Amino acid sequence: MKNQNRRAFIQKLTIGALAITPVQKLIASPVALQLQPQDKKIRFGVIADLHHDLIYDGMDRLSAFIDNMNTEKPDFIIQMGDLCFPKKENLPLMDVWNKFNGPKYHVIGNHDTDGGFTRDQVVEFWKAKAKFYSFDINGFHFVVLDGNEHNPSPDSPPGYARFISPAQVEWLKKDLDGATLPTIICCHQGLDNDAGGLENGTLMRYTLEQANQKNKHKVILVLSGHHHQDYYNQINGIHYVQINSASYQWLGDKYKEIRYSEAVDKAKPAVKYTVPYKDPLWAMVEIDQEGTISIRGRRSVFIGSSPEKLGVNPIDYIYPIVPYISDRKIKINS
What we know:
This protein has 334 residues and is of the alpha/beta class.
């Protein structure tokens, strides 16, 4: 049955790719997608936007995640950025992270360099593979992008860098050209969110879609953090999932509220500008041989007044502000 499921999944993905391939491309012999080994699926834990340097209980939140992951034993874990500054005071947090008994991967977020740190310093402190890189595991190909590069254009919006350079785009194209496995993309900033996502998100989506048309692989899923929200989009056959923050949503000065105590507010003065989640959020992602992406999230409640009670205008955030990560079942070719 496992061999039959594997063959069925490969057939589905190949048919899906052919459906969007130009007629002239059909003359060539496509490289079939591979799922290896045949008796395995992929299962991995994802946590995003802990913001240890802002939230007061970051250590407890990350410890809860790592403890759960060591119990569930996924194939690997990945954090989607905005974990912590690369300073010695945060070494205990990294000790917690490194307690996971398995492979661990990092995505760089825009806030990880706050305080004048560089992305190279972040990579070294975290012991990450690189600023952007790829890896294969259990018959799937994973690509980690660095969405924090500088856009030299004078028309670039102010604020944090949220751009992928031409050099990284070229690297991505070559990486995808060489991939024959179903592919998952991870980037801190959303490729599908023009409200603070990548400046060149349209280009990045088109790059993935063009790679799919070559039928050498199948980009099936894009994961992002950064936006501290919970949403899903399907664009031209690729599934985009936003992983909510482990900790909070930022509301700003207009809605500030002391949500813990005066002592916490003094120690972590930025917390009053957020609406924290009582419990840490993370997700388990599983992709099976039949072509189903299953996401199992966690649910919590707000600490203190909810955004609705404070009168936050939902239009300002586009997607709802919620203290949970939704459970989802996504068919790859749907």
